Each structure stands twice: as structure tokens, then as C-alpha cells.
Amino acid sequence: MKFFKLIGFSVLTVLSGLSAATSANDSESIEQEQGVVEAVAPPSINIEVEYDVLGKESEDSNEPLEFFAEDIVSLAYNVTNWEDTNVTIVGVTGTIVMYPQGYPVANITAANVGPYEMEVNGTSNFGQDVTLKLPEGQYFLVPFLLASKSEEMVRIAARPTLFEIVSPPISFFNPQFLSVQIILLAIVGGISYYYMKSKTQQRPTKKSVTDKRVDESWLPETYKK
User: What is the model's pTM?
Assistant: First the structure.
């Protein structure tokens, strides 16, 4: 009986040790995950970023703005510093995301601006031009500002803008449209030529006039031939 009690006590001791080790490992794993999340997450900054797309003000925010491929989009920024220290805007960049799939398809070329130093509660205004080298479809434009706060570089995301690349209207002098016109004219000309040629070949034939002999038996001799 004592032997079984000894075995039971040993098993409980081992299980307790394993449980303690597992709890320690889980705690360590959670701490590592939290550390990774904190390292990956961008530093927060209390900056308000607003911008307008010049020439494309839309009354309905749910409707995409329309552009043609290779169009240049002009963004006018209005930035307000709500931090308790000065912040300097040093650059602009961004990304373009496919809608509704949600994956990035292009990066906005980074450009230096300013630098614009904003005091506490101060504002700054500047612009950015973006060339849309994209195929037809709908996208989100997501601008980013690059700022310096206490010698620390941070990236500030602005609100996304939904836009659409549409096909341009066909011009009368468009080479593709002109080629279609030339083909149609060639077809019409060929049909007209064939019709005129067939009409020329079908000329009306003259009726042959046959000589009719006259019965001269009743005529006097002087009038007979």
C-alpha cells in the first residue's frame, strides 16, 4: 500500500513540474509576441492629415473619382500638429491598392517636401503630384507623410481615396478609328465598283428588224418592182 502511495506521489510531483514548465513557456511566448508586435507597430503621432484632389471634387464620397491612364493627380495637403512638441514634415510617399481585392499594385514615388516645421497646434500646407500609370480598374490611393518628431522618423497615413481608371473617349483622328474608317471606305468603294461594272456589262440589245415582203399581185404593172 505504501508502495502505491509513493508512486502516486511521484506522478503528481512530475505532473506539477510539467504544468509549471508549460505555464512558464506560455508566459515567455506571450511576452515575445508582445515584444514583436510593439517592435513592428509604427510609433503613434497625433497629426491630422487632410488633403483635396484638385479639380476632382466629388459630391458623393462613395463614388470613385475618374481618371485616364497617365493622368497626373495633384494633392493639396492641410496638416495640423496636435502633439505637445514641434513636428517637421520632410517627405511624402504612398501606395495604390487594388479595389476590392485589397493588395498593393504600385508605390507612389517618394518626394522630399519642405521641410515644414509645425509648432504645437500649428498647420502646414503643401502639394504633391502623382502620375497614374495603371490599367483600367478601381483603386485606393493611400498617401503617407514622413515626419520627424524628437529626432525620430515616423510615417503618417492619410485617408484613402477611391478612384477609377477609365478608357478615354475615341477621337475622330485616333489612328485606330481612322483605320476602321479606311476599311469601311474601301469596302463601300469595292461594292460600288462591282455594281457599276456589272451594269456596264448588261447593255440592252437592239431588236433586229426583218424585211417584210409586200404582196404586189394587186398592184398595177407600172408600180410593180
Answer: 0.56
